[in-house]
Task: inverse folding
């Protein structure tokens, strides 16, 4: 990444120059000849501006597009996919603004041919520009920090890391007596050096430090890699597009790349290829949208059936665990009696263990057998909280209980939770956490768009079979 002022100058200048070139290209004779041949916009090609009108159009377009990109001029590390998405959103804002000027019939409004021509150009070139300037100009200018809770490990890794280190983050509690040989007074007096690098603050400052120092690599030095602090650091690096390295002794406890670089191993915090990620998200949107539309009559029928059954609420919501331990709200058709967990709390249903749960209503039992109670979760897929395929999200309370008894349970947090997954097509539920984890981790390692499609087909076939069995 570039320094703050370099980034601002290049981002603003790049947007202005690229927009100006796009307007010039859009008004070239070649483009207008192309539009003339198209029956829909051929008539509009005659609106080509000339002389002062072209200059005014150029200035107006550059000013509006440059202003629309104002939120992106602040130097901040971002993932490539986030950079592309944010850039394209700003392009659409600028295009809508330019179209609004034309709607009010302003004297020098932007010709529609120009608007039509520059939109695809800006949607492709500007994201590419912002992705390019987020990278450092040469390969030897990496900026790394160490993040951890173990001063001894930080000191050891500082000596092994070949990347230039800016400092380290470590909580003050790690230097307290009985936990470390390092004097806590030195921390209070302005910091203590470990391995020749200075302390930049505690773990709570990680996001500020990543942005302030333009960090592109974080080396994690935690005593335990199954704690919330470790995954919190991973989450911050994931959000800001920062590469992560861990000691090879921890390689089996996190999702790592296939290549071993010696003492340190790359953490694969974004295991999906960009192409597969775009395909997956596109499929999620289409699948959920089509599903909600096609199943709308069935949704209405289920709502009426639940009301007639006991007169209670149609939907109920639960908090579920998402990527890196974050939570989101998921909705399902109510299949249990109202307030079923007030006395028992969050527990795995007896039906998941093959028994009969007395809390399940008559309509709810049919909904569960046919998986129709899951339909409202299509809304979570459409919003982006879930995917069609991925490890099933658990309740945070149940997640905590399972984590304490199953090693590597949190590896599931590296991918977005889904409606169905490898465990579901094999009829494995949360009542068998070891088997469920085995299937979930197998999916994390093998995930791809084609693999998702195979699981979707198998799940649809399974649901159809369960529906037929229930009706029969």
Result:
């Amino acid at each position: 990444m570039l320094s703050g002022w370099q980034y601002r100058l290049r981002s603003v200048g790049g947007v202005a120059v690229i927009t100006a070139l796009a307007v010039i290209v859009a008004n070239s004779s070649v483009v207008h000849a192309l539009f003339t041949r198209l029956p829909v916009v051929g008539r509009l090609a005659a609106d080509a501006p000339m002389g002062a009108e072209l200059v005014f159009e150029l200035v107006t377009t550059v000013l509006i597009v440059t202003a629309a990109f104002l939120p992106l001029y602040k130097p901040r590390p971002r993932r490539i996919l986030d950079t592309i998405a944010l850039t394209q959103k700003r392009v659409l804002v600028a295009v809508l603004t330019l179209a609004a000027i034309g709607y009010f019939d302003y004297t020098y409004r932007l010709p529609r041919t120009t608007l039509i021509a520059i939109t695809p150009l800006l949607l492709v070139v500007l994201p590419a520009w912002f992705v390019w300037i987020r990278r450092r100009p040469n390969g030897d200018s990496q900026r790394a920090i160490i993040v951890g809770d173990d001063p001894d490990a930080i000191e050891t890794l500082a000596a092994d890391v070949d990347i230039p280190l800016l400092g380290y983050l470590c909580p003050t509690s790690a230097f307290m007596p009985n936990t470390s040989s390092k004097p806590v007074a030195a921390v209070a007096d302005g910091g203590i050096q470990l391995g020749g690098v200075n302390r930049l603050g505690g773990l709570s400052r990680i996001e500020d430090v990543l942005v302030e120092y333009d960090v592109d690599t974080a080396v994690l030095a935690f005593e335990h890699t199954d704690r919330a602090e470790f995954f919190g650091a991973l989450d911050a690096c994931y959000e800001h597009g920062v590469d992560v390295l861990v000691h090879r002794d921890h390689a089996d406890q996190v999702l790592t790349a296939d290549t071993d670089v010696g003492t340190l191993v790359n953490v694969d915090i974004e295991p999906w290829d960009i192409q597969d990620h775009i395909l997956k998200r596109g499929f999620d949107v289409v699948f959920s949208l089509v599903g909600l539309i096609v199943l709308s009559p069935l949704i209405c029928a289920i709502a009426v059936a639940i009301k007639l059954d006991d007169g209670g609420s149609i939907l109920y919501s639960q908090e579920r665990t998402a990527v890196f331990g974050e939570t989101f709200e998921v909705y399902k058709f109510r299949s249990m009696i109202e307030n079923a967990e007030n006395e028992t709390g969050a527990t795995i249903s007896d039906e998941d263990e093959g028994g009969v749960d007395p809390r399940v209503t008559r309509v709810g039992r049919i909904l569960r057998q046919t998986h129709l109670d899951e339909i409202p979760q299509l809304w979570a897929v459409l919003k982006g909280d879930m995917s069609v395929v991925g490890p099933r999200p658990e309740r945070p309370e149940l997640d905590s209980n399972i984590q304490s008894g199953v090693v590597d349970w949190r590896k599931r947090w590296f991918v977005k939770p889904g409606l169905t997954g490898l465990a579901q097509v094999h009829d494995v539920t949360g009542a068998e956490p070891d088997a469920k984890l085995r299937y979930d981790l197998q999916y994390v390692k093998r995930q791809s768009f084609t693999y998702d499609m195979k699981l979707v087909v198998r799940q649809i076939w399974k649901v159809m079979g369960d529906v037929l069995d229930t009706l029969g």
